Amino acid sequence: MDSKQPVVYIVDDDPAVRDAFALMLEQAGVHARFFSGAEDFLAAYQPDFAGCLVLDVRMPGMDGIQLQRALVERRCTLPIIFLTGHGDIPMSVRAIKAGAVDFLSKPVTYSKLIASIRAAFIEQEKRYKASEPNHEARARLEKLTKREREVAVLAAQGLSSKEIATQLNISYRTVEIHRCNIMRKIGARSLLELARVVRESGWQHI
User: What's the rounded Cα separation, in Å, for the pair 190 and 61?
Assistant: First the structure.
C-alpha cells in the first residue's frame, strides 16, 4: 500500500458536487482526487491506491455499480461509499453485498460524509493487512491481462494447454502464446513457481 496519507477518490459527473466535496475535504485536511466519470477513474486506478472511493451511482456511460463490479474483478481493496440522489433500497442492498461500506443520499452533511470517510480509511487498512501476505503475488498477477490470468489459474491447477483451450473456447496455439507471456511477465521459471504465485495470490479460481 502507498506509504502516503490515504486519499479520497471522488467519482461524480456533477462539477458542483465535486467543488462542494473539495471544500469539505480541504476543511477536514483530507487529501482528495477527483474524476468526472467511472471510465476516467478506472483508467487511472493502480493496485497501490490507498484510502477510499466516494462514488456516484448514476453517471453517463459506466455507472457506479458497474465500476464497483470492475474493481471487484481487479481485487481492489478500496472501500466504496456510494453517494446518490436517486438511490433505492434494493440498489443499496446490492451495493453493500458487493462490498460497499456505506450508501449515502444527497445532499449529505459534512459531519456524516467525514465520519463515513474516516471509517472507510480504517476498513481499508484492515483489508490491506488481511491480504498483505498475498500482496506481492497479487502484484505479479496484476501485470497480466484478464485472459492471461484465466490461463494462469487453469495452468496452476494442472490443466494441459489442450484442456485450457477447450475450457476457454480458444485455440491451442493461443493458449501456448498466453503461457509464454505469463511466465515472462511474472518472472516464473517453472510451472511449480507459477502455481505458487497463483496460490499465494488467493486467485485459485477464475
Answer: 42
